[in-house]
Specification:
The complex is a heterodimer of chains A (314) and B (276). Chain A is an alpha/beta fold and 314 residues long. Chain A has 2 domains: 157 residues, 3-Layer(aba) Sandwich (Rossmann fold); 129 residues, Rossmann fold. Helix content of chain A is 39%, strand content 20%. Chain A contains 13 helices and 12 strands. In chain A, helix 9 links the parallel strand 8 and strand 9. Chain A is globular and about 60 Å long. The model of chain A has no long low-confidence stretch (mean pLDDT 97). Chain B has one domain: 3-Layer(aba) Sandwich (Rossmann fold). In chain B, the strands form 2 sheets. In chain B, strands 1-2-3-7-6 form a 5-stranded parallel beta sheet, with helices on both faces. Chain B has a two-stranded antiparallel ribbon with strand order 4-5. In chain B, helix 8 links the parallel strand 6 and strand 7. The longest helix of chain B is centred in the first third of the chain and has 22 residues. In chain B, 53% of the residues are buried. Classes of the chains: A alpha/beta (314), B alpha/beta (276). The interface between A and B is medium-sized, with 29 and 31 residues.
Chain lengths: 314, 276
């Protein structure tokens, strides 16, 4: 099945899950339409819990539901969850390790695009990375979002799934499982460097790896789909095969993928790391593709950073 | 009504909470004493609980939204037998203790929800009440909130959501003692006309003396019969109720009694009369 975007994929997966597991409910912060979950509410009206425009209240309600055995999915804009309701996520869900799933849409420049900074969220992963018990999934497209939602209920505890707003390009064939190891190697052109990417700019990173291959730089590209994974051994094994790594993410360079990889490299295999993402800047309104280009995520610019990285230590 | 039992129980809870703070060297006795009678009625005479099976799915739930008052709740759980014999040393707020500075779900048996970050009890209780409806269970959810705490915005999100979902299985008790950490509610720009505020959101309102056991019981029974809306019971309370030198003295919001003050309490608290 193909989906228009990550939100539609979420909604399909949620409906399928609710069909087989009566504990599942959807908690909405007036986000039913935004989450593309209208069909879910029609099929399961009693499992659609509307809280109105109140993210803190919604997360608290979800905590109460989970404390009594339900499995709530709270879906709304990534920053309204992780910033406005951050404390509720931390103290009332993560601390008691309650079984609440969060889906944050409009993630990154690409996710928020024309809405502007108020609706673009590039801090969510950094915030959640510092909270114990939270598992962070960063699917790269709609297919993977579907798989991520399905995979999330295999974990007994809070899971955050980073989603977009329909501008995500399909990368994965349908049915590709969400990688339990926390990454998947998508291109294996060689050992010149490792590129770690995550999220909805993955198509651009793939294009860059292909360009570099033609230019004689042989990169290996991994999609890192779980951040702060509690079992990063396989990823560490991969890092150990390289002496240079580039990270690319539609997020602030602090706290997200770049920080995760830097930490693993520092602690297990020190090497040159270059982080691409937002550096000490907010975004602005614009079309998703234009924005991604303007903020450095063009395949050419990614290639440029790779060339710079290749010069380091020589 | 178990009039005599509840009275004895309330006295015992006050004494135990005071002892807990004294021995632990830290804590909030004033806020704990303020709700001692509410907790006593709930645990001794109203709530459907099974201390030997604290995770019983059909039990009534209680959220102490004003989590800093937890010594009185810990005392109630101890006296009800959640920990077998009554706890000898709570080690309140000490390293590796079961009895944390604020209640922690999953760590302390009988604690239905983590609390202490003010304002969140009502929306979390809303979730618990919704779960009961979804599961066709008849347990009730009780939330005890302070009056100062009502300054938190998330309170009113919960108030609105609970009314929207017509959660008649949710009862909120407001400990209306007129004080908060920094001073009186009035001085701090607090919340006036609590009754009408809840009422305007569609809640059933009851207003009682928060130290009158019969009135507390009657209000709780009335809220249990309420249909179509949640109930807020506004309880007029005296902060520090039970010890004359603590009553309405906000210095006791957070304070550890001296040896003399602790000894003095032995005579003041009714506990003395019940063969300490």
């Amino acid at each position: 099945m193909s989906y228009k975007g990550t939100r539609e994929a979420f909604s399909v997966a949620l409906t399928e899950l609710a069909t087989i597991d009566e504990r599942i409910v959807f908690v909405s912060s007036d986000s039913l339409k935004a989450m593309r979950a209208v069909a879910f509410a029609e099929k399961f009206p009693e499992k659609y819990i509307e809280c109105g425009i109140s993210e803190q209240g919604s997360v608290d309600v979800a905590a109460g539901l989970a404390a009594c055995g339900q499995i709530p999915f709270v879906g709304t804009y990534a920053g309204f969850l992780t910033m406005r309701a951050c404390e509720q996520m931390r103290t009332f869900v993560a601390y008691p390790n309650l079984n609440v799933k969060f889906v944050g849409i409009n993630a990154g420049l690409v996710g928020g695009e024309r809405e502007g900074v108020t609706h673009q969220f590039y801090e969510d992963l950094g915030i959640l990375s510092s909270i114990p018990n939270v598992t962070i999934f960063t699917p790269a497209d709609a297919q993977q979002t579907y798989e991520a939602v399905k995979a999330s209920i295999e974990i007994n505890g809070p899971v955050y799934i980073r989603a977009g707003s329909g501008r995500e390009e399909d990368i994965y064939p349908a049915g590709t499982p969400f990688a339990e190891e926390g990454f998947r190697v998508l291109r294996d052109y060689g050992k010149d460097l490792l590129i770690c990417a995550s999220g909805f700019i993955l198509n651009r990173v793939i294009a860059s790896a292909e360009l570099l291959q033609k230019e004689g730089i042989h990169a290996t590209l991994a999609d890192v789909n779980i951040l702060q994974n509690r079992s990063p051994e396989k990823l560490i094994e991969l890092l150990k095969k390289f002496d240079r790594v580039l990270t690319v993410e539609d997020h602030n360079v602090n706290g997200g993928l770049g920080s995760y990889i830097c930490t693993l490299a520092c602690e297990h295999h020190p090497m040159y790391v270059e982080r691409m993402g937002l550096k000490d800047t907010f975004g602005e309104s614009g079309g998703a593709e234009e924005l991604a280009d303007a903020y450095g995520f063009s395949p050419e610019n990614i290639g440029k950073q790779v060339h710079k990285l290749m010069e380091r230590g020589r | 009504m178990k009039t005599e039992e509840v009275k004895k129980f309330a006295d015992k809870l006050r004494y135990e909470a005071y002892r807990m703070v004294y021995e632990g060297g830290d804590g909030h006795p004033g806020p704990a004493f303020s709700i001692a009678d509410i907790i006593a009625v709930l645990y001794e005479d109203v709530m459907k609980i099974d201390p030997e099976n604290p995770d019983w799915l059909d039990r009534d739930r209680l959220i102490l939204s004003k989590g800093h008052a937890c010594p009185i709740l810990y005392a109630a759980l101890s006296e009800k037998g959640y920990y077998g014999e009554s706890v000898e040393h709570f080690n309140l707020r000490k390293l590796h203790t079961t009895f944390q500075g604020h209640p922690v779900m999953g760590k302390t048996p009988g604690i239905d929800m983590t609390s202490g970050s003010l304002g969140n009890g009502i929306p979390i209780g809303t979730g618990m009440a919704l779960a009961a409806k979804l599961q066709n269970k008849d347990y009730r959810t009780y939330v005890i909130t302070g009056d100062g705490e009502l300054q938190e915005g998330v309170v009113w999100e919960g108030v609105m959501i609970a009314a929207h979902h017509q959660l008649d299985n949710l009862t909120v008790l407001v400990d209306h003692n007129g004080w908060q950490s920094g001073g009186s509610l009035k001085e701090t720009g607090g919340v006036d006309e609590i009754d009408s505020k809840f009422a305007s959101f569609g809640w059933k309102i009851l207003h009682i003396d928060g130290h009158d056991h019969a009135a507390i019981k009657a209000a709780l029974m009335e809220s249990a019969g309420q249909k179509g809306s949640p109930t807020a019971i506004i309880c007029d309370c005296v902060k520090g109720k039970g010890l004359s030198f603590m009553e309405n003295n906000n210095d006791w919001h957070k304070k550890v009694p001296t040896k003399e003050q602790f000894e003095a309490a032995r005579g003041l608290i009714e506990e003395e009369k019940h063969e300490l």
